[in-house]
Design a protein that fits this description.
- This protein is mainly α.
- The chain is 69% helix and 0% strand.
- It contains eleven helices and no strands.
- Helix 8 runs antiparallel to helix 9 (159-177) and helix 8 (113-143) crosses helix 10.
Length: 231
C-alpha cells in the first residue's frame, strides 16, 4: 500500500506516463520522480529482483496446490502428477507442470498483448472469486435448516454482517475488473477478462461432468508414516 501511495504521488502527467518512450510507465514514473537514469535503473533493478525472488515462492505454492489436487483425483492424469520423487522428496512432476504452464502462458504475449493482459487480469478476478464462493455458501448455510459445524473460534454475532459485507465488496470489485478501461469500446481496448473467465468456468464445468464427478470426492485425509522421514 505504501508503494502504491508513493506511485500515485509521483506519477505526474498520466498521459505522458502512458505514452512514455520507455514503453513502461513504471520506468517513466521513477525517471520523472528522480530525474536520474542511474537512480531509475537501481529502483527498477530492485523491483525486478523482488519479482524474480517472489516467483520461487509462487512456484512452490502453485506446484503444491497442483499436487494436492492431483492427489485428491481432481486433475486429469492425477496418478501421474500426484507422484512424489523418492530421491528429492518433492512433487517434481507437479512442479514441471506448473512451470511449463506458466511458460506457455507467457508466450501468449508474443502473439497478442491484449490476450495476455486478459489472462493476467484473471489472477485478481480468480483471487476474489475464491473468497466469494465459500463465503456465499456459508451465508446460504446460515439461513438453511442445517446447523453450521463451527470450529474452535468464530466471529459470533458479527460473523453474518462481516460475511455480507465481504460478499458485497467482492461482487463490486469483480464487477469493476471486467469493465473495459477505455471509452469508446472497440476490439482493441476491450477487456476480455470476463470472456476468458467464463470460458475457464465452462471448461471446469465440462471437466466436472466428464471426469471429476466420477473420481473427485473431496480432500483426502491421510497420514503417511515413513521411518526415513521421521529419522
Amino acid at each position: 500500500m505504501a508503494f502504491s501511495i508513493a506511485m500515485l504521488f509521483g506519477i505526474g502527467n498520466i498521459i505522458f506516463v502512458l505514452k512514455s518512450p520507455t514503453k513502461f510507465p513504471i520506468i517513466q514514473i521513477f525517471l520523472t520522480a528522480t530525474g536520474s537514469k542511474g537512480a531509475t535503473t537501481a529502483m527498477v533493478c530492485a523491483l525486478v529482483s523482488t519479482l524474480v525472488f517472489s516467483t520461487f515462492g509462487l512456484l512452490a505454492c502453485a506446484s503444491r496446490l497442483a499436487w494436492a489436487f492431483a492427489r485428491d483425483k481432481g486433475l486429469p492424469f492425477s496418478n501421474y502428477f500426484a507422484k512424489v520423487s523418492k530421491h528429492y522428496l518433492i512433487p517434481t512432476r507437479a512442479i514441471i507442470l506448473v512451470t511449463l504452464t506458466a511458460c506457455f502462458l507467457g508466450l501468449v504475449n508474443i502473439g497478442s498483448a491484449i490476450a495476455f493482459h486478459a489472462l493476467t487480469s484473471l489472477a485478481l478476478i480468480g483471487h476474489y472469486t475464491s473468497y466469494l464462493l465459500p463465503i456465499t455458501l456459508l451465508v446460504v448455510r446460515r439461513f438453511g435448516k442445517k446447523e453450521v459445524p463451527w470450529g474452535p473460534w468464530t466471529l459470533g454475532r458479527w460473523g453474518l454482517p462481516i460475511n455480507l459485507f465481504a460478499m458485497a465488496y467482492s461482487i463490486l470489485l469483480i464487477g469493476f475488473m471486467v469493465l473495459p478501461p477505455y471509452q469508446p469500446v472497440n476490439a482493441g481496448n476491450m477487456n476480455y477478462a470476463s470472456l476468458i473467465f467464463g470460458a475457464a468456468m465452462m471448461m471446469s464445468l465440462v471437466l466436472w461432468f466428464v471426469y471429476g464427478k466420477k473420481t473427485y470426492w473431496g480432500p483426502v485425509r491421510e497420514v503417511i508414516e515413513d521411518l526415513h522421514i521421521k529419522q
